[in-house]
Amino acid sequence: MTREEYKKAVETLKKWAYAYYVEDNPLVTDEVYDKLYREVEQYEKEHPEDIDPTSPTQRVGAPLKEGFKKAKHLSRMWSMEDVFDAKEFEAWMARIQKNFPGERYYVEPKFDGASLNLIYENGLLKQAITRGDGVEGEDVTNNARTIQSIRLEIDHKDLIEIRGEVLMTKQEFERINRERQSKGEALFANPRNAAAGSLRQLDPRITAKRNLIFQPWGVGVHNLSYEFLSEVMDYIYNLGFRKPPIRRVCTTVEEIEAIYDELKTMRDGFDVMLDGMVVKIDRIAAQKALGYTVKYPRWMVAYKFPAVEKQTRIKDVVLQVGRTGVITPVAVLEPVEVEGVVVERATLNNFDYIEKMDVRIGDMVTLIRSGDVIPKIIKVLTQYRTGKEKKIERPTHCPVCGSELLDEGKLIKCQNINCPARVVNSIIYFSSKQCMNIDGLGEKIVEQLYEAGLVKELEDIYHLKMEDLLKLEGFKEKRAKNLLDAIEKSKGAQCWRFINGLGIEHIGEVASKKICQAYGLDFMELTKEQLLAIEGFGEEMAESYLEFMRVNRDKVGRLLNIIRPKAPEKEEIVESPFTKKTVVLTGTMKKSRGEIKAMLEHLGAKVTNTVSKKTDIVIYGEDPGSKYDKAKQLGVKLMSEDEMWELVGEA
Ligand SMILES: NC(=O)c1ccc[n+]([C@@H]2O[C@H](COP(=O)([O-])OP(=O)(O)OC[C@H]3O[C@@H](n4cnc5c(N)ncnc54)[C@H](O)[C@@H]3O)[C@@H](O)[C@H]2O)c1
Ligand SMILES: [Zn+2]
């Protein structure tokens, strides 16, 4: 990097940092930012005399947003050094261990949200300040008061700064974006931006509606006299704050690497975004001895996870016709690797979405892929536009069968029920795992059967013959026999599989199971009243189901005759101390809430969320919350998690 390039890079980083920190609307992905940041850092290391004091490497955050009252932190807030792989992490550890051998390390997730400092005095929340530039931030006290997990009052009378991350769950993020989309408002790119943007609202009523979470990770000014940070944090969590899902004290690189791997695999399972793991020296005296650079503490490091957000370009857009006829626009991308998987396509959802985001062919975009989520385009990086990008037009004719499309605004549909794409996709769906589970009847083969004219509609798969299959390319006797056997075996399947396989709009696996559980094999003759009587069924579902059965009555009847599905057996309830009891769970448990809930329900319990006089048992784990107190107050039976495991015989 030349001096000129350095100067330019600093200006670019400043522009990007401003958009990210102040406007909560990044211009590039973190990966791209971090890459340039490191180049700048490298140049500064080689040319200390050239360092621009306004360089992002020399300061925390960015200038403050206009409109908020500014407020000073009682003690400084910091940024954090990053390492991106095992080699860098081990180098960091080696540096520390050279002067401080045998230290303990406190390890917990790195939460991807917005930094917040809470000042408590006389046990009351006095002020909440965003990190800002580390010295001074925005006073968001009124907004912070609306966050449920921020205590307004604590059982600690001395002055203390409690620091943590304001987070938004992935679910809440999806909910808010759905709401914003329906109102025609701009979408948040990710939960981090959404949390930061929601915290920094001039109107606290807006913040209140966003269901934010506060996750403490440290303290500023305080007068606690513990030897270790882990003890300080125990004290803080005991004041009634949310605990991180994992926090450990360890001593060796191997232990830390093992936790890193564990967290990385569990990453998608958490309800909030984690972008890495934080490793801190646990002994406070050692922290003090190591001290700080201009920007970050020398005693902690962020060990980052591989990025799930990437930048790439949209080369083209193709249209897919689904089994219900809905046209889905799919972006063809310049291939990009995300966590070891090469992504070449991403859904663009629908045409409303395209128009709202103003995505064009040729655009540079941010793509996210996490866990089993299909890759999604979350942002158009308009700063890369050259003017040559092409608008994506709404289609008027089906790309597969050519018939005129029905444009319902958000959805565009091919209405031709004989459209090859619809037929093929409904057969693929019918055969899929969560439906009739017919082994070997996947996309390729269904297409082949359709093109050969052997299958024109769903029912035809049950009329396939050996000699037909043998005429197809790639089919020898064995393969043909396996396929025919798999199709034959699907006869007599569970009736919910049959209903689910029909692919009725709004009727998925859960709804199909409920229909069968309630009405068995009489599912074709149901009235609207009967459907609405099923728990969780609304107008839209009932209407969709009835309409489907009305239009496809003959077809479904014929299929039914061929397949003769099985009615469900009544679920057997094992008698237990929890049978017919209303149970509430509170505190951190050894297994996930979902698992425990399912187990208790299997034992015949009704698991609810709020404690009332009707509650029979409150089962508590570690650090139980207000539900525990309420149960005590109401005289509801309390049971520890261990007692529960003992009773169910899994102690
Ligand atoms: N995309 C962009 O344009 C752009 C611009 C600027 C910065 N960024 C991104 O922001 C990051 C750098 O920002 P930064 O300097 O604020 O650092 P950072 O946000 O990566 O790390 C420091 C912060 O981590 C938070 N944190 C979360 N969990 C924590 C824990 N367990 N213990 C302690 N702190 C915890 C704290 O709020 C702390 O202030 C980089 O990842 C960079 O990619 C991106
Ligand atoms: Zn069509």
TrEMBL record:
Its EC number is 6.5.1.2. The active site is at K110. The gene is ligA. HAMAP family: DNA_ligase_A (MF_01588). InterPro entries: BRCT_dom, BRCT_dom_sf, DisA/LigA_HHH, DNA_ligase, DNA_ligase_AS, DNA_ligase_CS, DNAligase_adenylation, DNAligase_N. Residues 573-645 form the BRCT domain. This is DNA ligase. It catalyses: NAD(+) + (deoxyribonucleotide)n-3'-hydroxyl + 5'-phospho-(deoxyribonucleotide)m = (deoxyribonucleotide)n+m + AMP + beta-nicotinamide D-nucleotide. Belongs to the NAD-dependent DNA ligase family. LigA subfamily. Keywords: DNA damage, DNA repair, DNA replication, Ligase, Magnesium, Manganese, Metal-binding, NAD, Zinc. Gene3D superfamilies: 5' to 3' exonuclease, C-terminal subdomain (1.10.150.20), 6.20.10.30, BRCT domain (3.40.50.10190), DNA ligase/mRNA capping enzyme (3.30.470.30), Helix hairpin bin (1.10.287.610), Nucleic acid-binding proteins (2.40.50.140). It comes from the Bacteria. It is an enzyme of class 6 (ligase). DNA ligase that catalyzes the formation of phosphodiester linkages between 5'-phosphoryl and 3'-hydroxyl groups in double-stranded DNA using NAD as a coenzyme and as the energy source for the reaction. It is essential for DNA replication and repair of damaged DNA. It holds the Pfam family DNA_ligase_aden. The lineage of its organism: Bacteria, Pseudomonadati, Campylobacterota, Epsilonproteobacteria, Campylobacterales. Its cofactor is Mg(2+); Mn(2+). GO terms for molecular function: ligase activity. Zn(2+) binds at C398, C401, C414, C419. NAD(+) binds at D30, E31, V32, Y33, D34, S79, M80, E108, R131, E165, K280, K304.
